[in-house]
User: What shape does this take?
Amino acid sequence: MQDFEIKSLKEKLAISLTLLRLSIFLVMLMWSLDKLINPNHATMIFKNFYALPDMSSQVLSLIASLQLAVVFAFVIGFKKKYTYGLILLMHSVSTFSSYKQYLNPWKSLLFFAAWPMLAACISLFLLRDFDTLWVLKEPKSKTD
Assistant: This one.
């Protein structure tokens, strides 16, 4: 059996960025679906972490639908500058709005998982031009 070897840095980078994109997609997908499947939980999150009043299921469905559109555009690499940026923004808001959880880490240890994911979102945004596996190929402009 032949050893599987990735030879170039470009291949390694492309695989790494794809894995980051797919794992970030999974988390964001679940957060979006939670708003549709479990609106009571989503209402509690909006109330406790974002200081927003109770939301109707219609408002939550609208937010979830918009978020799902962004999440699916992100996973296929559509308009990377914007979709990767929106994912970074959404996760940043979530991470920083949970600041109280970081003040008592032994009660809320799982909240610290947001920080490596935030770093992954930043990395993916900064390296988006090198994220080339399983993404839509954008048409080349006439200035390329």
